[in-house]
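If it is no trouble, might I ask you for a protein's amino acid sequence along with its backbone structure tokens?
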Amino acid sequence: MPEPKKPLTILLASPRGFCAGVDRAIQIVERAIERYGRPVYVRHEIVHNRYVVEALEAKGAVFVDELDEVPDDRPVVFSAHGVPKAVPAEAGRRNLLYVDATCPLVSKVHREAERHHEAGRRVVLIGHAGHPEVIGTMGQLPADALLLVENVAQAEALEVADPRNLAYATQTTLSVDDTTEIVAVLRRRFPAIQGPKMEDICYATTNRQAAVKAIAERCDALVVIGAPNSSNSMRLVEVAATYGCARSRLVQRAADMDWTWLDAGWIEGGRRLGITAGASAPELLVDELIAACRTRYDVVVEEVRTTEENVVFKLPRQLVA
């Protein structure tokens, strides 16, 4: 007789997985392939998830780092993270057919930064250096018009020539708590600083972090399905650890799961595993991990939903007509 499986309760955070901006970006690539034929070029990963990228490659997408890798006679899609203004300008100079898949919430940050610049304010961008979204936002303005702040220490050390003419904007995929602390420092040090009317951090990032906070204390371990270069996924790991589940980690998909890690220190009476997925991770990868758990454990799934999402972003007109 085989040994009975150990009991495992999966606390499934909801909302999780694809956000409206990611869903729109993937649809844009798929529609572009249908309309213009194979191949359609995509500048950078359309979203930060290898499974998604490989699935689109199989349909006819070719991912490149820069525009000089795109032939003159083929269309190109810009990723959901947004691009510096120099990129569409270069595409226009070459008469390339291009489709912009920038998330509308990222585009909102771009417009805010431009408005502040036009009003004579220097913009403080809260974000992570080197992230494609930050590169895209910083590329909307002249180099000296924008200052990047990554943490509270940098906010405390920030020096500006004219503190009366300052504004701030934020990367959309940051930790809500960390960003609140940085903004509080900026407001204390620069009382005249202007901020967005609505929070720049996107609804999906906020909702996924809130869902993780709701389950973290109840979990013995927590897994975030996502890519290591996905900012919103990495923030979910941090949020889980901060809110009560120190044993939290990122897993790209079931094949990467470390079962020894999960089994370590098994508690009599079962274990509770939290599962969520970053905004660029498809639900299929969640199902895959749950199925892998079922082969090893006696699994009960409890979905913990903190809010409903019904946001949908329209596709570009050139792909709808």
User: Anything to note?
Assistant: The CA atoms of residues 103 and 166 lie 25 Å apart. The radius of gyration is 21 Å. The longest strand covers residues 6-14. The chain has a mean pLDDT of 95.
